[in-house]
Design brief:
The chain is an alpha+beta fold. It has one domain. The chain is about 20% helix and about 40% strand. The longest helix is centred in the last third of the chain and has 11 residues. The chain is globular and about 40 Å long.
């Protein structure tokens, strides 16, 4: 994981597709592909990875400062599209 953060939080919208904190932790602790938003880091990241159950997940997240800590705020978790999965697999197989 190339992002450095102290805590992880999920917004209410992140639960919409049936995934939870455990799935997010599994994705960020395993080999993953982090893509900076086209508009820049201040707009957030897409994180592509796999959970322990084998599901290929895409996380939309943003690093925010909360008091004196850096927090990874995840606001979307869903299954990857086929094109995203191929891109992820090309990256992790290197």
């Amino acid at each position: 994981m190339i992002l450095s953060y102290d805590a992880l939080i999920l917004t209410e919208s992140a639960y919409r597709h049936g995934f939870d904190e455990d799935d997010v932790v599994e994705v960020v602790e395993r080999p993953c592909l982090v893509i900076v938003n086209r508009r820049g880091r201040s707009y957030g990241y897409e994180i592509l990875g796999q959970n322990a159950g084998g599901a290929y997940l895409l996380l939309a997240a943003k690093l925010v400062e909360y008091h004196d800590r850096t927090v990874l705020r995840v606001y979307h978790v869903n299954r990857m599209k086929d094109s995203d999965r191929r891109r992820y697999l090309r990256h992790v197989r290197r």
